[in-house]
Structures are given as C-alpha cells and as structure tokens.
C-alpha cells in the first residue's frame, strides 16, 4: 500500500529464477477490455498494445494516491506539507516488472476522478497494461497518508469510506486478461470488504483454472481491518491456495500469534503448506530467507545508503517474478532460487528516487 514507482533498478544484475506455465501466443487489448460485462457506472481504459502471454504477470488489487511528507523522519501530524505519489502494492509490483523489461498488467478500480485518471496514465507511462482498470463515477480514488518516522516506524492514515478499489465487482472483472497470464499476483487488502472480496476470490478461481501460478504477498495493514483476528483469518483464508508467498518477519510474528520469525521450524510447520512451491521471508537490510519443498536457505543483503524503504518489498517481489517469466520453462527450478534472489537483494532494503 505504499509508493515504489520512483524506484530505479540496476538491470545489470540478473538471476535465473524460473517457474510457471509455457505458451507463446500473443494478444492485443481493445479499449473495452474484451470479454467481460460491465456496470454502466464504470469505464475501462486500455494501453492498446500487444502483451506477450508467455511472460505476462497480472497484478490484482488496490491502486491509490499516497501523500508523503515533504520532510522525512517526522510524524504525519508534524509534516509541514505533503507530496502526492502513486501507490498500492499490486500496482507497485506491476510497475517494477515493467521497469525491468517484463510484461505486466493491472486489474483494479479507481474513482472516475482526476486522481484515478492520473493513476491510469502513470501505469501507461510505465508500460503496464491497464485495460483491466475500471472507473467508478460514484466513489473516489483511495487516499493514504504515509510517513517513516524518526524512530524508524511507518505511520499510515487511510481514507476509504468506501473508496473505488473496494467496489470492484465480479461482473467488471476482465477474465480474458487473467486467462492470458502466466502469473497472477495479489495481496490481502482486497479481501477486507465486499464486493471486492468476492471478486478477488473469483479472479483467483479463473487464474487457477487457466493454469496460472498464484503469487501472494499479504502486505499486512492492520488499520484497514476491523480487528487483528479478522486480519489474521482473512489473510489465512486463501493461504493454502498460493503457489508462491512473500512475507516479512513482522507478518510471521502476527500470523503465528507471536512465534519467533527467525525460527525455521516455525515457518516450515506453521506457514509452509503442501502445495507451496516457494516461500520467501524478507528481512529488510539483512536480505531474505527462502523455503522450498526440497531445501531452504538465506541470501544476505548488500549494504547501501538507505533513502526510503517505502515500497521496497514490492520492488523486491518484481525482481525474481520478472525473471521467472522470462523463460519457457514449465516448472520451478528450485536450485536456482538463491541465484535469482541474490540478483535483487538490494531491493530488500532501499527504494531510491530517480
């Protein structure tokens, strides 16, 4: 739920992380999104370009405006002013993949307002296919105020009462676009309220039946949930359906009820499920850990000058995911996981401006 669009990637560092299904056909999208019924209150918008099916990653969820203080290291109340920036974790991942030269698309809903149209245009500028976007004339684009305080803690304030992203319906879902994907990526924020929750579940069902790899980053934002119990239950309700999961140390502690996030047995016994191909635990500046059915290990971070960690987790996800779809291989090559993750571990700890 944080902005990482300004991240600059080092394209010289490459890995070979591979998983997914193979295909070679191409498709182009028209302005009406094609193949999905639409509410008369909603509009669609398309980039109007061809997408490579064999490498397409479709990201589903929220797209919003982040307001970030013009001065760093202070609380929201202390901020003298704010600068607007595009945000939303699934959209961040889509942009990260596109900036790395990959093929990505975004599905979600924004208000039919200035901010919503601005966000659609930003996706277009970043070469993310946006034909899956819908525009609601009766709801506003979501807003979030976010800061990294001097004590290192992030502070959020959300305005969603309700916002357009919460109102996406199954009838507005571009199922044809999902069917073209090799990976379907999503978070948990779209599970909080109806009708978006049912739409999220329907999108997962379409993706699973079409043979997509299901990629899940819970992206815990407690202030958006009715309670901690509701958040834990909501996040875990789709846990066992994912093929790939990325979580943080804090999310392990939360989801396990306070267990040690650095204990491999905790991760393997409480969070790793039998259908999972890969579980990644990000550790900020310390890098990440990875778990597969065959083995697990750690990739250490690279020391850099930290600018802003906001959105770094989303940027991290985009790296190995882009590599995973850059090949026609039909299975996860587990032995190459460390190589792929080490190619992008700087993104665990820094989000750099242009």
From TrEMBL:
Reaction(s) catalysed (UniProt annotation): D-fructose + ATP = D-fructose 6-phosphate + ADP + H(+)
Entry keywords, A to Z: ATP-binding, Kinase, Nucleotide-binding, Transferase
Protein name, entry field: fructokinase
The Carbohydrate kinase PfkB domain, residue ranges: 56-324
Its job: May play an important role in maintaining the flux of carbon towards starch formation.
Pathway, per record: Glycan biosynthesis; starch biosynthesis
Keyword hit for Kinase: yes
Family annotation (Pfam families): PfkB
Record EC number: 2.7.1.4
Organism, as annotated: Rehmannia glutinosa
Family: Belongs to the carbohydrate kinase PfkB family.
Chain positions covered by the region annotation Disordered: 14-44
